[in-house]
Amino acid sequence: MDIKNILVVCIGNICRSPMAEYLLKQQYPQLHIESAGISGLSGHAADEKAQRCMQRLGIDMQPHCAKKLNLELIKKADLILVMSQNQQKHIEHTWPFSKGKTFRLGHWQDKNVPDPYQHDQTVFDETCILIQNCIADWKKYI
């Protein structure tokens, strides 16, 4: 499978999916990578605690602007990475053609990435590490 466009999805598009998006962009600058939320908080910046996690890794997430998941984004993506089984089911149910290109970020570890929203910085830090580990597992497929 030739992957050129990756879409990362979570619920609000302000915590998990932007962190994964920016980490993937750092590793795969040649690819088109974007993120969206199932009930995206359109126009919102990334959560401050998520931004703090990225700053520690030398990644500036200031430009991030949350957007809502839509048909165009699903069509364009060669690979759709979600945070949980429920999100995968939702996307595959809403857009049946997305089956086969929609996977959990934690697919290879059989893990969901829990939502750190409204938790303290420690939870965000743990989520960031989990996202990094999950991204590393995709290396041989991207």
Indicate the proportion of strand residues: 5-15%
The number of helical runs is 5
The biggest beta sheet is recorded as: 4 strands, parallel
CATH architecture: 3-Layer(aba) Sandwich
What is the radius of gyration computed over CA atoms, rounded to a whole number of angstroms? 14 Å
Describe this structure in words.
The protein has 142 residues and is α/β, with parallel strands linked by helices. The protein has a single domain, classed as Response regulator (Rossmann fold). 38% of the residues lie in helices and 13% in strands. The protein has helices at 16-27, 48-56, 71-76, 85-94, 121-137, and strands spanning 5-10, 32-37, 79-82, 102-104. A four-stranded parallel sheet has the order 2-1-3-4, with helices on both faces. Strand 3, helix 4 (85-94) and strand 4 (102-104) form a beta-alpha-beta unit. The longest helix has 17 residues, at 121-137. The termini are close together.
Which descriptors would you attach to this protein?
single chain; 142 residues; alpha/beta; Rossmann fold; 4-stranded parallel beta sheet; 4 strands; 13% strand; globular
